[in-house]
């Protein structure tokens, strides 16, 4: 094995070592430059020569992977921004036009009680009912994680019970409820397509005086 060879390299004397420039500095053969090129064990930098006239070769895939990671990071931030804006436009302030733009026509809320909420119209009806029962309703996003076309959110809702809610007359109680929701978005348009969620309904009922 030649000095600088790695295990598995061509054996000394075989034809892989023969031929002009094979395993050598391109300047080999000139006076003062008769030495072999040495290869790094890591292999990532390609062939590395101690001569300053030979540059290390960085595979294009390294830069491509970095660019892909950067794009993924930007996409995740975009997904989170869409959901954050939806919470703001639906809970913190009721903006019907924004909901129409954010929600896909075939949207389905898989976690709504009773008949599933569908499309922008269903979302607006659901949110309007919440605001009627809790006129000062607000939401705080505690945690948010995005992956592929999904966004997971852990949140806290605050409001004062001043209107009928699920058959319960107004109590004037100040309530705080936590919930966890998963959102699916359309890859091309960024519109919200599906939702799954859980919230602490038992805690809400206790705060409204329901045993």
UniProtKB/TrEMBL annotation:
Region described as Disordered: spans on this chain: 1-39
InterPro entries: Cyclase_SnoaL-like, NTF2-like_dom_sf
Signal peptide span: none
One GO term of the biological process aspect: polyketide metabolic process
UniProt biased composition (Basic and acidic residues): 30-39
Gene3D superfamilies according to UniProt: 3.10.450.50
Domain of life (superkingdom): Bacteria
Protein name, entry field: Ester cyclase
């Amino acid at each position: 094995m030649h000095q600088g060879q790695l295990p598995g390299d061509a054996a000394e004397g075989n034809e892989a070592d023969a031929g002009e420039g094979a395993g050598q500095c391109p300047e080999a053969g000139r006076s003062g430059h008769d030495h072999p090129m040495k290869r790094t064990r890591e292999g990532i930098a390609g062939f590395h020569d101690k001569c300053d006239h030979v540059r290390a070769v960085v595979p294009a895939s390294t830069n491509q992977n970095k660019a892909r990671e950067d794009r993924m990071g930007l996409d995740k931030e975009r997904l989170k921004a869409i959901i954050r804006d939806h919470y703001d436009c639906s809970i913190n302030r009721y903006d019907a036009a924004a909901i129409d733009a954010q929600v896909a026509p075939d949207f389905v809320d898989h976690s709504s009680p009773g008949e599933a909420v569908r499309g922008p119209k269903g979302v607006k009806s659901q949110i309007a009912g919440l605001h009627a029962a809790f006129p000062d309703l607000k939401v705080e996003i505690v945690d948010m994680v995005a992956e592929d076309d999904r966004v997971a959110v852990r949140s806290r809702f605050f409001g004062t019970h001043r209107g009928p809610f699920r058959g319960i007359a107004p109590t004037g109680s100040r309530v705080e409820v936590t919930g966890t929701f998963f959102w699916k978005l359309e890859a091309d348009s960024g519109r919200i397509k599906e939702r799954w969620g859980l919230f602490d309904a038992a805690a809400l009922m206790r705060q409204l005086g329901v045993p």
